[in-house]
Amino acid sequence: MAYETIIVETRGKVGLITLNRPKALNALNSEVLKEVVAAVNGFGANPDIGAMVITGSEKAFAAGADIKEMQAISFVDAYVQDFFVGWEEFARTRKPIIAAVAGYALGGGCELAMMCDFIIAADNAKFGQPEITLGVMPGMGGSQRLTRFVGKSKAMDMCLTGRMMDAAEAERCGLVSRVVPAGELLEEALMAAAKIADFSLPSVMMAKEAVNRAYETTLAEGLRFERRLFHSLFALDDQKEGMAAFAEKRKPNFTNR
Ligand code: CO8
Fold it and tell me: Which spans of this chain does the record mark as coiled coil (predicted)?
């Protein structure tokens, strides 16, 4: 598929998606949605890919949903078309995906980063949910995911005032997992993704599923779910290989795909 709003590459076992609408600070319009979902589904179906990275430019990961596209939409259009429901497909991606965020991650951009499994931020990153300044509110998960990441007080602060937080604050409050110098962002994210992609794919996918389940269920159910997944991993060649390699003091070669 020829892409117009994103660049799609592979780096070894890692799929790399770069948002590429520089004139609009990577604002997320319907075309970006269609292309990102297609790219992620393509990597999901490709047995040679074990993890993905999504990134933007040094100035903007994404400055939000495309305001100019949304401007004229009526309630009926938004409701009947379930406007932007397609991003749920992105959030259901089963292979790990890291958001490498430099510059602005605002509105839908911040929400897209939060749909990923973790966020690595450049030291110039700025996160925010400024929808309130446009007369609306977050609509791609910001009120829900941000609250789970940073707690009620800070989520309310961000959603009600529309202010931005810098990378240091985002790391302090648990929104991002690491902050690195802007020039090292992509390398750091690709290295993390390559490390993940070298592990057993089913183990990685189950670990992701288990952590995500923590948001959906009680502790008792989550622990039971985790234990059952853990038990099932003993059916893998990769479990035998991983433990044998440890005992034999060598690097494992995982083959379950
Ligand atoms: N949409 C469309 N175009 C944008 C957007 C955007 N979100 N952000 C920036 N652009 C465009 C600008 O219009 C400008 O285009 P042009 O050159 O044609 O005028 C170009 O990008 C460069 O932007 P600026 O000149 O404004 O650059 P600055 O460096 O001066 O400012 C900012 C950068 C602070 C990021 C500024 O551009 C800004 O405030 N952008 C809007 C941020 C925002 O409000 N984002 C939230 C959008 S709403 C949203 O995401 C809702 C998601 C949920 C939807 C779910 C629906 C159901």
Answer: none
- Given the residues 15, 56, 108, 128, select the one marked as catalytic: 108
Question: What is the CATH number for 162?
Answer: 3.90.226.10
Residues 214 and 222 sit within 8 Å (Cβ to Cβ): yes
- Is the ipTM higher than 0.95? The answer is yes
Question: Shortest CA distance to 176 belongs to which of 207, 149, 208, 142?
Answer: 149
Q: Do residues 53 and 65 both lie within one domain?
A: yes
Class of residue 76 by CB neighbours under 10 A (exposed 0-12, middle 13-18, buried 19+): exposed
* Domain carrying residue 64: 6-197
Per DSSP (E only), the strands in 4-62 are 6-11, 14-19, 51-55, 60-62
Tokens of residue 111, six digits = 């929400």
Annotated active-site residue 169? The verdict is no
Instruction: Establish whether 78 is a catalytic residue.
Output: no
Pocket, ligand 1, Cβ cutoff 6 A: 24-25, 27, 63-68, 83-84, 104, 106-108, 130-131, 134, 138-140
> In angstroms, what is the span from residue 130 Cα to ligand 1's centroid?
10
- Residue 254 inside a domain? The answer is no
Clarify whether residues 97 and 221 are in a common domain. no
| 188-220 CB burial, b ≥16 within 10 A, e <16 | bbbebbbebbbbbbbbbebbbebeeeeeeeeee
Asked about 131 being catalytic, the answer comes back as yes
Q: Residues 65, 121, 197, 207: which is the catalytic one?
A: 65
- Residues 33-91: pLDDT tens digits? 999 999 999 999 999 999 999 999 999 999 999 999 999 999 999 999 999 899 999 99
